[in-house]
């Protein structure tokens, strides 16, 4: 029996593509473009999925996009850094405990015990701040991420700088008639640490007041996924 058409039926997931120079009943079956579907045969066009959905493999229905964010349950590298942070935080806490235990001994007192205590405490907070970067971000964690890392890290670096200046000043003060003798003591390193740290604190306050970070849904970077991240 003669057939009255020159093209096969286009299955769902495809659309008709008219051949140039041929009768309209002669067409090719073109697959739907990325992000589009067709759910019936001989579809003349494909329908674009909503922004939060993505076609299935057959491009016949739209399905929800997968939410993507840093999670220690899925990424072995994230788990490694999490465990490493806990190990270093525990080691710092152990050393801090030793400092407290031997608080009144000459060796601890000679090491500027207050500054050493602040240094170890800020290191612990810096190591533990990594956990604010894990899990589904929300507005409050987005704001805390940079603050809980930036301020303790600045205090740590400032404490090390203050200790270095203190040692340098002490060596200079041993020279006869040196003017550095008046700077020897706990006041200079404490002032250096407080000055440097206060700059970082003011920067954080200014940043949060003018342009605070917030939760953001990136639906375009990865096909089929919604990247949940902090807009900073």
From TrEMBL:
Stretches that traverse the bilayer: 76-103, 115-135, 147-171, 192-210
GO molecular function: G protein-coupled receptor activity
Pfam family membership, one: 7tm_3
Main location: membrane
Gene Ontology, cellular component aspect: plasma membrane
Top-rank taxon, per record: Eukaryota
Bilayer disposition of the protein: Multi-pass membrane protein
Domain G-protein coupled receptors family 3 profile span(s) in chain numbering: 77-232
Subcellular location: Membrane
InterPro entries found in the cross-reference section: GPCR_3, GPCR_3_9-Cys_dom, GPCR_3_9-Cys_sf, GPCR_3_C, GPCR_3_Ca_sens_rcpt-rel, GPCR_3_vmron_rcpt_2
Keywords from the named record: Glycoprotein, Membrane, Signal, Transmembrane, Transmembrane helix
PANTHER family: CALCIUM-SENSING RECEPTOR-RELATED, VOMERONASAL TYPE-2 RECEPTOR 26
The protein's name: G-protein coupled receptors family 3 profile domain-containing protein
Organism of derivation: Aquarana catesbeiana (American bullfrog)
């Amino acid at each position: 029996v003669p057939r009255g058409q020159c093209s096969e039926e286009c299955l769902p997931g495809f659309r008709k593509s008219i051949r140039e120079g041929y009768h309209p009943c002669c067409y090719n079956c073109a697959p739907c473009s990325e992000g589009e579907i067709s759910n019936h045969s001989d579809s003349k066009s494909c329908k674009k999925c909503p922004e939060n959905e993505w076609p299935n493999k057959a491009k016949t229905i739209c399905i929800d996009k997968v939410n993507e964010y840093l999670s220690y349950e899925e990424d072995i590298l994230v788990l490694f850094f999490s465990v490493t942070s806990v190990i270093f935080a525990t080691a710092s806490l152990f050393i801090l405990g030793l400092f407290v235990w031997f608080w009144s001994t000459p060796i601890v007192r000679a090491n500027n015990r207050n500054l050493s205590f602040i240094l170890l405490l800020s290191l612990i907070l810096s190591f533990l701040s990594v956990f604010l970067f894990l899990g589904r971000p929300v507005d409050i964690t987005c704001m805390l991420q940079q603050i809980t890392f930036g301020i303790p890290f600045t205090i740590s670096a400032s404490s090390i700088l203050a200790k270095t200046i203190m040692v340098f000043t002490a060596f200079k003060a041993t020279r006869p008639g040196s003017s550095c003798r008046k700077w020897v003591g706990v006041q200079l390193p404490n002032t250096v640490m407080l000055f440097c740290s206060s700059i970082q604190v003011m920067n954080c306050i200014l940043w949060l007041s003018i342009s605070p970070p917030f939760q953001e849904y990136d639906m375009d970077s990865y096909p089929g996924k919604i990247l949940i991240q902090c807009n900073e």
